[in-house]
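Worked Example 4.2. Consider the chain below.
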Amino acid sequence: MSDIPKQLTEIADALHKGEAPSSETVRTLLSWFGAQRRRYSAVENIRRSLDQLGIKTDPDFELTYIDAPIRFVLRTEEQKTIPTSRTDFQDQPPPPGETAPIEIVPIPDPTYRVGMLPSANRTPLSVKPMANLQEAITIMLRYDYSQLPVMETEREVKGIVSWTSIGSRLALGVKCAVVRDCMHPAQIISHDTSLFTAIETIVRNDYILTRHADNRIGGIVTTADLSLQFRQLAEPFLLLGEIENHIRRLIQGKFSKEELGAVRDPSDDEREVGDVSDLTFGEYIRLLEEPSRWEKLNLRLDRVIFVKALDDVRQIRNEVMHFDPDPIPPEEIIKLRDFAGMMQVLRQAGAV
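Applying the procedure from the previous section yields the following structure tokens:
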């Protein structure tokens, strides 16, 4: 257990002594393992450590918002993970020549849930049913909100007041002195609902309220939040696709089939390389880092700087293709935007 962080060991020791469950955020747990995002390797290490210590997180640290609190609790016999070695499956020893057991790290349900959105974890401003309507209007104008939950307590929702609900009442000549007179029924879903299941409800109503496991209203997700989330999810893929197409245009027609084949990964010698589209990102770099091949591009750019930037793109691409639940850091998005922007300038100048 030498690789298990001290903080986690201390928590497990306290739980096994019967002390009250400890609580931290997912981000803090990741930091103990030297990670900022829930990359596969980090998740694997955390799960292995939790399993060895006989504890788990509630809710599962991989399935909730990164800044949400999680409790550390003891794992019961029924909650043990799936077998972690070949010998767990059979009484017979492993076959001759097999020097180590096959370790299996359990993978939870990977569904992307509404509760993983930041807005689903920010307690919304609200008004009470008997509040003066001007109070609700002022709050919505002050914060540029389109709607406000109407709540008695953090768990008791009476409805929603919005520009639509106010406008429809006024258009019909209904007197709206207090919020209750102008509210509509609230749209509420569980925080563990699939995001894609929730999309139709969000689009139809412009929002949804999320209810957490303890019955609290955890946040409000609007169509604006949905647009931002899909930009965060989609932008890296779109930028990487644009960059790769630019690189292919840059290389296309400049090299022979033999030259392209010469940069193929030596460990993948059975793969046939007949065209630029057959190359990997690493092979683009191998092709362009050689000075004599670089000269064929006839670019008035520094080869070393260009290739280094392209290698940064390759590393980001590898991270994106792991499909981690957390978005890539802003500084990496900026690198992708900057490289794509440079390639756009080269294209406009006729160099690509």
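The first helix runs from residue 6 to 16. Residues 228-348 form one domain. Compare this with Example 4.1 before moving on.
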